[in-house]
Amino acid sequence: MDQIKIGKFIAALRKEKGYTQEQLAEKLSVSNKSISRWENGNTMPDLSLIPKLCEILNISINEFLSGERIDNSEYQKKLEENIIINMDLLKKKIRQISKRLMLIIISVFVLFLVALFLFIGYKELTYKKVYLDDNNIQITVCKEKSNLGFTISTKDETPFLFNSYYEEETKTYIIEKLFRYLDENNLQDISSTTTILFDKKEKIEKIVYADKVIYELGDELSNCN
């Protein structure tokens, strides 16, 4: 199975249909990053997504696995080739899974021993991490002089933290799921509002939170203050 060929085939069909990566991602309920990885040949779609993807792109699963359109005269031959190739891949996958399963069992056992040691040697922790309800989050994108920025706050003033990263290839700043901390003794350094400003040298064309675009280049913005 040629992932690079399949990825280029997906990209070509998507463009034929007039879909952007965002639109195709929305139809499949996946992230834009997943579509980009498929088209670059870095990963393959999950098996559960392939039938729906083929339906959207108007191709057969056989054509998808071949990475090209197939004439009726070649269809049976390609089908047999794909069956043989995928049987071989399945055997290799089973061997890999067996090795990984053994490593997982060993790792779980080690983690169990570590957890047991911590349980015996230390008092019970009250520290918990809980994901915030999206309805409680408010994100405002703004500008500070020529700089771009955004402010995240929780409506009920719940202290929170979040992970984020910049995707240089798509010039997208991605805010990952926010989570709050429940520990009465350790909340003094965590705020219910966070403002981040980007230097004008950083080329940010889009800001995404939880797979939702909250800013695109060209949007009119108010001042942060």
Notes on the protein architecture:
- With 225 residues, the protein is of the alpha+beta class.
- It is 42% helix and 25% strand.
- The protein is built from 6 helices and 9 strands; from the N terminus they run ααααααβββββββββ.
- It has helices spanning 3-17, 21-28, 32-39, 50-57, 61-66, 72-121, and strands at residues 128-131, 137-144, 147-154, 160-167, 172-182, 193-198, 206-209, 212-216, 222-223.
- Strands 1, 4, 5, 7 and 8 form a 5-stranded mixed beta sheet that branches. Strands 6-3-2-9 form a 4-stranded mixed beta sheet, with no helix packed on it.
- A hairpin with a 2-residue loop joins strand 2 and strand 3.
- The radius of gyration is 24 Å and the shape is flat.
- The protein starts with a helix and ends with a strand.
- Mean pLDDT is 79; it is low at 120-127.
Strand and helix map with partners:
Blueprint: H1 3-17, H2 21-28, H3 32-39, H4 50-57, H5 61-66, H6 72-121, E1 128-131, E2 137-144, E3 147-154, E4 160-167, E5 172-182, E6 193-198, E7 206-209, E8 212-216, E9 222-223
Parallel strand pairs: 2-9, 5-7
Antiparallel strand pairs: 1-5, 2-3, 3-6, 4-5, 7-8
Assembly context of the chains: single chain
Helical content class: 40-55%
Strand content: 15-25%
Average pLDDT taken over every residue: 79
Keyword list:
42% helix; 225 residues; alpha+beta; 6 helices; 5-stranded mixed β-sheet
Task: Please summarize what this structure is.
The protein is α+β, with helices and mostly antiparallel strands. It has helices at residues 3-17, 21-28, 32-39, 50-57, 61-66, 72-121, and strands spanning 128-131, 137-144, 147-154, 160-167, 172-182, 193-198, 206-209, 212-216, 222-223.
